[in-house]
Amino acid sequence: MFLVYIASCLQQDRSIYLVLLEGDGVAFHEGHGDSPRVHPNSGARRLLESHDLLLQTTLDSGTYTKLHSFKHHINGFAVYTTPSQVARLRDMAGVKMVEKDRGAKMMTTYTPELLSLRKGIWAQEGGERNAGEGVVIGFVDSGINPLHPSFAYRPMQTFTSNLSHFVGACETGPHFPLSSCNGKIVSARYFSAGAEAAATLDPSLDFLSPFDADGHGSHVASIAAGNAGVPVVVNDYYYGRASGMAPRARIAVYKAIYPSVGTLADVIAAIDHAVLDGVDILTLSIGPDDPPQDTLTFLSIFDISLLYAQKAGVLVVQAAGNKGPAPSTVVSYSPWTIGVAACTTDRRYSASLLLGNGTIVDGVGLSGPSFGNGTILQRLILAKDALKINGTFPRTPEYIEECQHPEAFDPNIVFASVIMCTFSEGFSNGTSTLGAIVHTSKALGFAAYILVPNPSYGDYIAEPIPFDFPGIMIPRVADAKVILQHYQDETKRDEKGTVTEFCARAAVGEGRVASFTGRSPVVSRFSSRGPDIIDMKRNLADILKPDIIAPGHQIWGAWTPISALQPMLTGHNFALLSGTSMAAPHVAGIAALIKQYNPLWTPSMIASAISTTSTKHDNLGEVLMAEGFQPNSLYASTPLEHGAGAVNPNDANDPGLVLSSGYTDYISFLCSLPNIDPNIITAATGEPCNTHLSVYPHNLNLPSVTISALKGSVSVRRTVMNIGNNTETYVGAVIPPNGTSVNLYPTLFTISPQETQDLEIQLSVTQSMEKFSFGEVVLTGSLNHIYGTGAISGFFSYDSVRVGDIVVKNQVGEGAAAECISGFTALDIPHPRGPLW
Asked: Which residues are the signal sequence here (predicted)?
């Protein structure tokens, strides 16, 4: 689902602009000590008054509307005005940055079992009734459906934790009374000034309240923190029980996306309030879908906003984007957030088609069977053979073969028959939908429908969608040919080619029963890939993105019956969706479990633990694979697709070692960017670039090392901390990438609890390479920690913690190379050949 930013014709010279000012937000004013989230109201009032004064003295009266003041974690505002007026702001003293709003989009049961939470980290924290207790997860999204059982308060399971660190509020409005904040939902706010300026809102859908008219925000929140054991029932069929990753975590809602529009102004205002309220973790399955036009990716006001959220102690989890499998498509750029890519699970919803000759053809569906539980064969008819003879409808694919219009068919022919519709031109360009086929089927009384591909357009991508009419999607041309051959063999025609008798038969089988077979996880086709970029020119950044993969393909989650942007899901309380929107809350919920168990860990420590304990093997014991451009195509995944690997929550709770970074480290990283003007960093952050802190970008203390243009040799430093309770001895080992030699110092060290150890990694080019190649650095501990062992799990007698993968791209030319040592889940899945609903 995509939101389009459209300016009114009467105000087309006005736009929304984001303005960043000198001086800190009140969270970081002097005197706040170790509690940056708590601040006096007087400080916020003074900032607000200064914003108003600046606008009043700079811009002409009547030419602008201030939409938001950002007061807490950053100092700035959003204003709706003209380019000529905003030009005045750019030149004013105290104004650091002015950026045009780029708009914001959504990035869109079984996974607790898949990730072994019940016997793992949930058991450590007292079971599902306690998992996530005391942690608040904030969701900047499309709101929440407070009536959904995933968010219900359960009197028999009272919350025991003290949320003294959190101070939220419950804003009310349409469909959202005060009782919506029920103890599970501890806070709910909405931000609409940007949306109201950008578009004419539809009062029947764009509710000015925290209520979710779309479903996306509810889906995301339920994945991270939905109640445990909620029955999933769709179209009167029971699919099982759903649980969030941290079912006892509290939910704080910050609605900033509307069915009609989304703006960064509202998103940043929501982030500002979430930090003020005191959320522990912030989930962003929404955001800008493209890099900024006139600044570095790291220095957009949106990313600077996330930097200051991290500085305030909030762990930010972002959806990586849904523009895969093309390279350099991630929209989570910065090292101070966790960018989550999407992968599949081993759950499959398969359907089958039984032909009259006994052949069974597999397909995709999420519906019940045709007559007789799919055992009674009905007439099989190709749509174009069932058209009205003298019909006046247009002779276009959507009428003659795509089953979009009931009036095109002879009702006497199609009644109680299995009709073959074709995935053709209309589906390819997005004008035809699966929903229209279901409507046609119901209107004319089909026994069932089949959607087969037009060979001219090749295979198509089919996602299971729950619908209340028998049907099946056959995405492969080869399978479609089998069906069509049976049809042609059994169908009688006259000399003009007109059908005289339909003798082919078919039946659609049950498609709602899940099977748990096949390779997983696999990086999803739609999931955005690295390498990370630094600007619109696609120059590579020395940061590995995405950070990690998590389940994001065919995920059950809470929904809103209004379903403003998904007509096929109207009336449903649950939806089966795919996207990095679904992957990000998996990681946010897992981070909440880690935060509960380790309350003093900083955001970067949690991020490191998730990264270094990830796995790079699938359920078959083989290296992770990734889906390619062509349907059904797989190739060996790399850190550019999967980051550090697949999230492994049970091991992440006890990683042994962590690599941590703080605010000053990130400033040093920014100051070390190639060819950077220090004044730009100071303008964006308010911090000077101290010469002694300016190192190389690859020296930021991450569980990954990325060097985008290595020449000759380079020495990289990393510092690990023992966060365990015992002294431990580690042995280091390296698998170097092709064309590169790598040496690690020291290779053996003993480290006591809370102590640190510096590591030096020396990388040298041995051969020029045109493509990325990959290696790995592993530290093996002497104690019985449970660590992800990466690519060399069988080489050691102890379990191992991965410090990082090595990714190398040796450039053509003598002595040039690019390297990466990587360590370590709104955006819904786009259909490459058009939407299916």
From this structure: none
Distance, first Cα to last Cα, the chain: 11
Picking from 87, 79, 90, 81, the residue whose alpha carbon sits closest to that of residue 63 is 81
Asked whether residue 815 is assigned to any structural domain, the reply reads yes
Which is it for strands 418-423 and 378-382: parallel, antiparallel or unpaired?
A: parallel
Strands 250-255 vs 136-141: parallel, antiparallel or unpaired: parallel
Neighbour-count burial for 394-403, b at 16+ CB within 10 Å, e otherwise = eebbbbbbbb
Q: What angle do CA 210, 212, 216 make, to 5 degrees?
A: 130
Tokens of 549: 């993969």
10 Å CB burial of residue 294 (0-12, 13-18, 19+) is exposed
Phi-psi region at 834: left, alpha or beta (left = phi > 0; alpha = psi -120 to 50): left
Write the burial class of residue 676 (CB in 10 Å: 0-12 exposed, 13-18 middle, 19+ buried): middle
pLDDT of residue 784: 61
Using CA atoms, how far residue 59 sits from 17, 62, 197, in Å, is 13, 9, 18
Rounded to whole angstroms, how far apart are CA atoms 111 and 306?
28
Q: Report the residue count for the chain.
A: 837
CATH number of 753's domain: 2.60.40.2310
Residue 159 gets which letter from DSSP?
-
CATH at residue 396: 3.50.30.30
The dihedral built from the CA positions of residue 269, 275, 280 and 281, taken in this order, carries a sign that is positive
- Stated pTM of the model: 0.89
- Which comes out higher in pLDDT, residue 440 or 154? 440
**Farthest-apart Cα atoms in the chain, separation:** 93
Look at residue 358 and give its three-state secondary structure. Answer: coil
Query: Residue 95 sits in a domain of what CATH number?
Result: 3.30.70.80
- Active site amino acids: 141, 216, 581
Residue type at position 450: I
Cα separation, 374 vs 372, in Å, equals: 5
Q: How far is CA 702 from CA 174, 330, 455, in A?
A: 45, 18, 48
Q: Is 806 among the domain residues? A: yes
User: Is 50 exceeded by the pLDDT of residue 625?
Assistant: yes
Cα three-residue angle 45-173-142, rounded to 5 degrees: 85
End-of-domain residue from the set 488, 516, 544: 516
What single-letter amino acid sits at 485? Q
Residue 710 backbone phi and psi in degrees, to 5: -80, 135
Q: Name the residue range of residue 452's domain.
A: 347-516
- Single-letter code of the amino acid located at 307: L
How many degrees, rounded to 5, is the angle at CA 832 between CA 807 and CA 427?
A: 170
Is 463 domain-assigned?
yes
Judge whether residue 122 has pLDDT over 50.
Answer: no
Q: How far apart are CA 303 and CA 723, in angstroms?
A: 29
Residue 393 maps to a domain: yes
Three-state DSSP string of 632-670: CCEEECCHHHHCCCECCHHHHCCCCEECCCCHHHHHHHH
For residue 601, report the phi and psi dihedrals to the nearest 5 degrees. Answer: -70, 140
Q: Is the pLDDT of residue 526 over 60?
A: yes
Query: Given a cut of 90, is residue 712 above it in pLDDT?
Result: no
Half-sphere exposure of 282 (CA within 13 A, CB side): 33
CA 192 to chain centre: 23
Which among 100, 118, 142 is the end of a domain? Answer: 100
Give the count of domains, the chain.
Answer: 3
Give the integer Cα–Cα distance in Å for 593 and 590.
5
Inter-axis angle of helices 580-597 and 603-612, to 10 degrees?
A: 110
- Taking the C-alpha atoms of residue 318 and residue 322, their distance in angstroms, rounded to an integer, is 12
Which amino acid would we find at residue 544? L
pLDDT tens, residue by residue, 254-292: 999 999 999 999 999 999 999 999 999 999 999 888 888
Per the structure block, which two tokens stand in for 798? 């102890």
